[in-house]
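Sequence in, structure out. Go.
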Amino acid sequence: MTKCNTRQLGFSFLRKRKLTVDFGGGEITSDSGLLLVRQADQSLGLLEGLASCITDRRDARYTDHDLLTLLRQRIYQIVAGYEDCNDANVLRKDPALKAACGRMPSDKELGSQPTLSRLENTVTQEDLLSDRAVVC
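Output:
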C-alpha cells in the first residue's frame, strides 16, 4: 500500500506569507518548479552574489524593480526554458515566477521585456571583472 506524505513543503523566502498549491484552477502556472529553484538559490546565495557584482546605474527615481528582483526574473525565466526576453511580457504575470521573485500573485507585475533587455545591456565587463566579482 502506498504511504502518503502529509508534510507540507515550506519556502523560507516567502517569510510569513502563505502560499497554497492546489489543483482547483484559478491563477494557473506550469512553472511551479521555480519555487524549488528559488529555495536553492536562496540557500546558496548565487543571485545575491551576482547582484553585488553589478553596479546599478539606473536613476532610482524612475525604477519600479530592484536589481536583484530583475536578475531573479531573468535567470529563472532562462532556467524554465524561456531563453528569449520576449516571453517576459506574458511571464511577468505568472504566479509561480512572481512568487519565486518574492512577490505574491496579487502584487505588482514583474519587469517587462524592455526592462529586462535594458538590464542585460547595462552589465559591463568591468562589473564582471571587478574585485567584487570574486564573490561571484
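Check: Helices lie at 34-44, 46-53, 67-79, 88-91, 95-100, 113-122, 125-129. The chain is about 40% helix and 0% strand.
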